Amino acid sequence: MADVSVAVDAAVPARVAYDQWTRFEEFPDFMPTVLAFDHPDELSLKWTLLDATGRRQTMEAEITEQVPGERISWRGTNGDFAGIVTFRPTGDATCRITLQHSTFPEGDMGQFGDQPGLEKERTRDNLVSFKKHVEAAWTTPD
């Protein structure tokens, strides 16, 4: 099993970051590893992405928990990965975003287990891309 945990601090309120994260369909606009996204129903997610080895993958997941403004967790429909993203206030207009995920060797996503350093770097790059996107999109209230 490969476990990855990455955190970044963003200059936006936690609720703003959470709200932006739930706009999954926008991920291909700012995350280079996400090629396409589909949201078949309220709890289902389907991503087309480049995996840690540069191969095109389809990842299907279901949302297992969603606490507005705080966290979203998911698991792969084949049971081969799971994750959670949390949004914690660090000030009036700042927050810490933490993305944690695990992949299991027996599943389709198991190749990450052989390259945990590469997957952590890729996850950090994606989270930094998200941070830049949400900060650029947010306008400070007057």
TrEMBL record:
Annotated organism of origin: Nocardiopsis mangrovi
Tree of life domain: Bacteria
SUPFAM superfamilies: Bet v1-like (SSF55961)
Protein name: SRPBCC family protein
InterPro entries: ORF3 (IPR047137), Polyketide_cyclase/dehydratase (IPR019587), START-like_dom_sf (IPR023393)
